[in-house]
Design a protein that fits this description.
Twelve copies of one chain form a homododecamer. With 144 residues, the first copy, chain A, is an alpha/beta fold. Chain A contains five helices and five strands, in the order E-H-H-E-H-E-H-E-E-H. Strand 5 of chain K pairs antiparallel with strand 5 of chain L.
Chain lengths: 144, 144, 144, 144, 144, 144, 144, 144, 144, 144, 144, 144
Amino acid sequence: MRVLVVHGPNLNLLGERQPEIYGTQTLAEIDAALMQEAKHLGIELRTTQHNAEGAIIDALHAAREEYDAVIINPGAYAHYSYAIADAIASLRVPVVEVHLSNLAARETHRRTSVTAGSCKGYVAGFGGRSYLMALRALQEIVKS
Amino acid sequence: MRVLVVHGPNLNLLGERQPEIYGTQTLAEIDAALMQEAKHLGIELRTTQHNAEGAIIDALHAAREEYDAVIINPGAYAHYSYAIADAIASLRVPVVEVHLSNLAARETHRRTSVTAGSCKGYVAGFGGRSYLMALRALQEIVKS
Amino acid sequence: MRVLVVHGPNLNLLGERQPEIYGTQTLAEIDAALMQEAKHLGIELRTTQHNAEGAIIDALHAAREEYDAVIINPGAYAHYSYAIADAIASLRVPVVEVHLSNLAARETHRRTSVTAGSCKGYVAGFGGRSYLMALRALQEIVKS
Amino acid sequence: MRVLVVHGPNLNLLGERQPEIYGTQTLAEIDAALMQEAKHLGIELRTTQHNAEGAIIDALHAAREEYDAVIINPGAYAHYSYAIADAIASLRVPVVEVHLSNLAARETHRRTSVTAGSCKGYVAGFGGRSYLMALRALQEIVKS
Amino acid sequence: MRVLVVHGPNLNLLGERQPEIYGTQTLAEIDAALMQEAKHLGIELRTTQHNAEGAIIDALHAAREEYDAVIINPGAYAHYSYAIADAIASLRVPVVEVHLSNLAARETHRRTSVTAGSCKGYVAGFGGRSYLMALRALQEIVKS
Amino acid sequence: MRVLVVHGPNLNLLGERQPEIYGTQTLAEIDAALMQEAKHLGIELRTTQHNAEGAIIDALHAAREEYDAVIINPGAYAHYSYAIADAIASLRVPVVEVHLSNLAARETHRRTSVTAGSCKGYVAGFGGRSYLMALRALQEIVKS
Amino acid sequence: MRVLVVHGPNLNLLGERQPEIYGTQTLAEIDAALMQEAKHLGIELRTTQHNAEGAIIDALHAAREEYDAVIINPGAYAHYSYAIADAIASLRVPVVEVHLSNLAARETHRRTSVTAGSCKGYVAGFGGRSYLMALRALQEIVKS
Amino acid sequence: MRVLVVHGPNLNLLGERQPEIYGTQTLAEIDAALMQEAKHLGIELRTTQHNAEGAIIDALHAAREEYDAVIINPGAYAHYSYAIADAIASLRVPVVEVHLSNLAARETHRRTSVTAGSCKGYVAGFGGRSYLMALRALQEIVKS
Amino acid sequence: MRVLVVHGPNLNLLGERQPEIYGTQTLAEIDAALMQEAKHLGIELRTTQHNAEGAIIDALHAAREEYDAVIINPGAYAHYSYAIADAIASLRVPVVEVHLSNLAARETHRRTSVTAGSCKGYVAGFGGRSYLMALRALQEIVKS
Amino acid sequence: MRVLVVHGPNLNLLGERQPEIYGTQTLAEIDAALMQEAKHLGIELRTTQHNAEGAIIDALHAAREEYDAVIINPGAYAHYSYAIADAIASLRVPVVEVHLSNLAARETHRRTSVTAGSCKGYVAGFGGRSYLMALRALQEIVKS
Amino acid sequence: MRVLVVHGPNLNLLGERQPEIYGTQTLAEIDAALMQEAKHLGIELRTTQHNAEGAIIDALHAAREEYDAVIINPGAYAHYSYAIADAIASLRVPVVEVHLSNLAARETHRRTSVTAGSCKGYVAGFGGRSYLMALRALQEIVKS
Amino acid sequence: MRVLVVHGPNLNLLGERQPEIYGTQTLAEIDAALMQEAKHLGIELRTTQHNAEGAIIDALHAAREEYDAVIINPGAYAHYSYAIADAIASLRVPVVEVHLSNLAARETHRRTSVTAGSCKGYVAGFGGRSYLMALRALQEIVKS
């Protein structure tokens, strides 16, 4: 099983950016934890980070042929990018949207995700652990 | 570690109620899967189901002393029960909100959860598996 | 044929509560008229009144097995109880929503029913007669 | 007792128009059923169908002198015709608004009726039977 | 003169629940202060606390015959319970709504009370003192 | 100078329709007063009343060639008829919108006029006198 | 008969301020025309102009005893001054709101008047003539 | 192949009405161009213009039997006539909505078409050419 | 202890202005009752009434040095004066907002107070007694 | 005459992406049809597809010097990209917006185009034919 | 060159009022810095502070003849005073709106300025420096 | 001191794009003026222009290490790019948002900036001078 993880805008700054909200774990550490878990689960995993909306769409398109499942943290694009929502909807494999923080407890504009409706499921609020939860769930879903 | 699982209104009908949305798994089957996983993780687990808003608040209050974490599926109360939101906010232990279906992909009124903002995290769209994901995450959170 | 009639909150005060809006007929009198009409139509009828949202959901669930049709006057719950709406949607028998007064001619918040969309039909504005109209219609619907 | 039934726009196509929503009964069949029931109840009945808003207003005005009650299915005009609402409000006899389908379960724009607030009562969701329910209720109202 | 005090959901946790907002005074202490003041004013007082919406409606109904005035702190139900609003409107004795905190200075959803419009008056922001202010005012109102 | 007066829907019932709002003056009496005033001012006046939106548009179109000014009371069409608004905008002569009652003091939906923005001026709240005020003003405007 | 004319904020600049909207007539010229017409009608007239909301309220209060009717052009206060609206509502004599330009044809925020609902009538769009129309109408109203 | 073209309200004034928006081409000229193009394409074409909503509905109904495709310019009715939208939805042949001007670049109320959702396609902004584009497209659609 | 009472716009007319809403008690009578109660409580009290927003702000500023607490009835300014809200927020002593009528039971625009959020507490609906309740509460607050 | 066709995000997936909505025609097939038609019309045509908002803006800028007209299908960017709208507005040559599906008949968020207002015209709902219609129209517009 | 600086409501308290938001600089210190900079730039400067909306309008009117440019900090009036907006619009000299704090980062109601649209430019978030920036810019604008 | 200036989408067209709004100054001329002023102030300055949202985010991230302050003109991204807002919020150095035109005086959608709330300050309406004002202010802020 092959899984693609797409990290959205500003996630490259994880660990230094507003640590009181996003924690001190860096993206490299999250990727490392994901890699270790993937190895443990027998999953072939690739992670990628893009600040550009278009690059995220390209990455999702490329996933159509090569991956069995996708995890995406669309960052702030979750709140307005109908183009990413369309790209997700065009995939045939299951996609799970994850967020580090619990968006429901933050500013009003973060309480709506226009991309989540195109996904299979949604996990938010568990920090880097949100990705691991999605990964395990996707393995079970794809297997079943 | 002790965990309380609170199932909200109409979940007692799981399996027979709109199976095209909620699946054919019954609540008893979900509870059995939760129990097995809890046993596996060394967690003491109790599950309870209530159709009444007041009974859910009572159950949450009781959890203040006796549990280390709570999983709640507030069902439709998620969309308007500020009273349950306040009850969750009054707990000192972590609470995770779960939903069987991916609410972001359903009717407009289901896209807003007034209770999620009082929780630690949110998992939706994985059927009965949503509960298991929350359970494992809570164990890691409480341990850390 | 068996029909359940569920009267919602504050309807127990009928006759004394704001008679300029709801009329002077008591709930007992409405129930008596319903019983008489049911007898006349050869319908087995039971009526029940609950102020609690959870009790109304319980009553609707119970109706799943035992009744061929349901009449519900959700009172003010019509305007916000998505939990009752879900309970109605989980029934397989036809449900008709009735109101004593014509809600469209009253305060703004009364002009929207979140429960009516889960029902088969809707009757409002005919006082106690609203129930009788629903009863006769349900008989014809179930027969056909 | 004399009753006027006003059928609004597009109802002349009943039976062929979107039968999955409106059923296969034609307007002629509804009128025949109404006539038979009226005869049974000793009511003098006239039915009329108009696609034009102005013609519906004219028909309502004419009813001021000649009828003891009115049944109106304003069709889509229900959602925006304040002019028909005013015409109904200018009548001194009771008016009942009926709809074939349960508008609360359809598109958002169909969930609001600006004409219903000028009526005595409202019946929706029972197909052609909605008219018969209104007819019987009006007879009882006018008699009482 | 007899006065009923109805405490709404989550108020049983007063003193331990978010003391930075609601203070450290417990409900028992508020009730004791109310009892002492009532005694001083020659008022027969009963207090009751309910987490369930239906139980609050029941308590209000019971007050119809037995009390001369009611004080209600509807807690979070103030923001959506039209059923409680209807129950208050069905009483013939004066009802005063009280809140411990000044809701106008808190989250947006707390700035609207759908129950206050059915009451005689409204007091908010004085902690446990809000109840005492309402009690004294009701005595003067009933006497006058 | 030639002036056309267009009375909109339901105005034919003036005098009998909700006299507490619209007064007891009939349309014939208003027309007579207008005729007398027009004669006094040396104005050639024609009045016409239509319940149908299309007929009002036709009348306005006809006015393009034959009249120097138009007075229109669009009745309830004022609140939604963009088609009448466009017809007014297509005239080259000044048009004044009049209403018998002061719409700003009535129901919310009557507080917006989509036709007034296409007119030269607006007079409301003076009963039949609103027309006379518009007539005199138009004479002065056309003369100047 | 005594009439008070209250000119609101910025009207002192009439003639020089945005003449493409408000015309080149100065306030002194409008006042002169009003005085001449008042003399002609046998009306005792006083005009006053205030930029301050409080001064307008004071002027309206003073009118309670000394005038038989009031004409007010609240200028921009029309769009938000509920305090002036309350002051108008506290008068027992008829008040007419006038505006020089046709507000319905201007920016969105000018299309709502919160003060007009407290008035007897409303005239807009006739330049300085709006005042004269109101004056003549008030004379007829007070006389009748 | 037979095509019906329905021109909506105020289009009869084309050429003289606000030519800076709608151009100087008259409706007769548009019809002539349509006729010539239809002849060229071997299409049997009829055009009709109505200011009345009801007449447009009638024309659409008549098209059910006699035409293979319909072009409609609903004019201002596009913004509120759910009755016309229903009439279009009741046709079984393809309908294309056309507008002379690009509504998206005009006043806010013109940016929403409630009728377009019932059509096959939508063309706006090309003046009289909008009709020709629709005609050619419909021929290709019906042939395919 | 020194307390300032600020009466807002139109309150000088109390007793004669809409007595069905505001009662027949005059402002002088309210002030007398306040003075008597203040004397009884050992409070040094000054009352002032202003129709002008700016004068109310000035009065509040002056209170910064000279008073230990403030009672304000902002009248209609409560619904839009962010300037008064800022002035209240700039005080260091407790401020209580009072209203004679229960605003929650009146017109929609009166249900929001933009000033209340800057206050310590809020009392509404008790007529002149609202002030006395605030006065006694402030004494207890300042003492504690 | 030279024309640039800009295909927006996700259009590269045409044919495989949700064919029930977008059809089975691929983008290569649409481009081939466009090329053939361009050749037939004597137009020099270039097509380009970009998932990135910035790349679409760059392409539009480049068109300023080199093309006589532009066809753009902004895909989901139509619903929020004011930056693309500004880029279109900065061109001096005519731009036509096209969509494959009839957006008016789809989800609510697809019914608004913020880019269409900067264009000359708009064509939607004809599948790949939408582009051909725009191409022919642009040729006629540029020639005239 | 002569410049008028108008400080709005509550700015007289600068330095003591909520220093965590507005800083510790007093208005006298800001005025001194402005005077010094004006002297340096060869500008004749006058500053004035008013809590009253009417006084601010008066000051702006007076500026029409005597000043070459105006700087205004409308304080909270920025959020609702259309009367001040109209006064600014009536000036012929450039006006710049300044705010001490960055309103975009504060409460929702502070994010809209109804006065800024009548100004030449807008500067916010630089504390007392906002005024100096405006002063230098105005000199350059007036000179150019 | 090092300052980065980020020009957003479409600003490369400055001078040719809608000069009636944005002036005739080109971006090269603005950059030259900025460079000259920077030299004068002893500031090390770099300017960059990007049409792509992702490139702007990248540029802001890069500024984290290398610059002491940032000036950003987000162009149309100001109205919806929460991703750029997050990128600004992740910087530790002060950021000032500038706009050439006074957005408050333009179309409704331009009156809201979702990025300004993450900035230190905001300058709009002074053409190319807006940048210079920001540059000088930032120097003073960083120095202090």
